[in-house]
Design a protein that fits this description.
mainly alpha; three-stranded antiparallel β-sheet; 11 helices; 3 strands; globular
Length: 311
């Protein structure tokens, strides 16, 4: 499993698309910090006369991360799309390995490889967010001393569970529909729903726990956690795992785990994406006992079945 995980990471790092998508995200982060930091004074956000936003306060950090995770889902969609596309377009069922490997190892290894890479990219993005406040032109009166927990808190409580949830939905979507383009459709649906979720937050203001749980991204739970807090508290407090965030994360991470479990049950080596063949070609692997057993002509322990053969 870990060999597949490492291979996925190395594979993505060899492709320029990874760097293009990551660079677009980093530029977007810097742009937002410039706006909040008064670099463009005519459009600097403020909450009233003499009450400007602290650019690196935890509430603004959460706000930036919340907005970016909704854009980040398209990067996740592309990664998951390419994860399946590269394997099945290159005939992975025929050349997977020289010895059997379970479908669980294949799926979990590929999933973890992409998850780890996306988490690292977002960690770098969070670091850039912290350093961007020192760009010349940022109003230093809008910058306070950094606190590590202001960045770790949303990363651990908000970012990682959302990456896990979104990735699980995309993987399950491809497996159940057997259509690669389903990740793009789900991505657009997620993006549309992300705008509607804030309205849901206020619609359930009198039943906050229900409203918090209904929002899969955790935005409502975050909003409810700030209700009743002064602006000073919102700029300085560590939000942590409030009851709203705890139950939201528990429900949706658990739901993600179930999706992966049922996807594992549904998945088989003969995935094929609506393959026209009703029967396996002679050189295809057969599924036996939940594992993949490649039968490659010219057999033996040759190198055709190693990880590099997947490219």
């Amino acid at each position: 499993m870990w060999q597949i995980c490492i291979f996925e990471i190395k594979y993505r790092l060899r492709h320029i698309s990874t760097y293009i998508l990551a660079s677009a995200m980093f530029i977007h982060t810097i742009w937002h910090i410039l706006i909040y930091g008064g670099f463009f004074r005519e459009i600097a956000p403020h909450l009233g006369p003499d009450n400007y936003v602290i650019v690196n306060s935890i509430s603004v950090i959460y706000l930036n991360i919340s907005y970016q995770i909704h854009l980040f889902l398209f990067m996740i969609a592309i990664f998951i799309f390419l994860m399946f596309q590269k394997d099945f377009s290159s005939g992975i069922p025929n050349i997977l390995f020289t010895k059997p490997i379970t479908k669980g190892q294949y799926l979990l290894g590929s999933f973890l490889g992409n998850f780890i890479l996306m988490a690292v990219i977002y960690a770098i993005n969070t670091f850039i967010m912290a350093m961007a406040v020192y760009v010349p032109g940022i109003d230093k009166e809008l910058v306070v001393a950094h606190k590590l927990m202001w960045y770790l808190d949303p990363f651990l409580v908000y970012v990682l569970p959302n990456i896990f949830f979104i990735s699980a939905v995309f993987v399950a979507g491809v497996i159940f529909t057997k259509r690669l383009w389903s990740v793009l459709l789900i991505g657009l649906l997620f993006y549309y729903l992300s705008d509607k979720m804030v309205g849901i937050s206020w619609a359930f203001i009198d039943r906050r726990m229900l409203g918090a749980i209904l929002n899969p991204f955790g935005d409502s739970a975050f909003i409810y956690s700030l209700i009743g807090k002064s602006m000073v508290e919102r700029d300085t407090m560590i939000i942590g795992m409030t009851s709203y965030l705890f139950w939201n994360r528990l429900v949706w991470v658990g739901f993600s785990g179930l999706l992966l479990f049922f996807g594992w049950i549904k998945f088989n080596v003969y995935f094929g994406f609506r393959c026209k063949h009703h029967h396996p070609p002679p050189c295809s692997p057969h599924k036996c006992g939940g594992s993949f057993s490649p039968h490659i002509h010219g057999g033996g322990g040759g190198g055709n079945g190693n990880l590099q053969g997947r490219i």
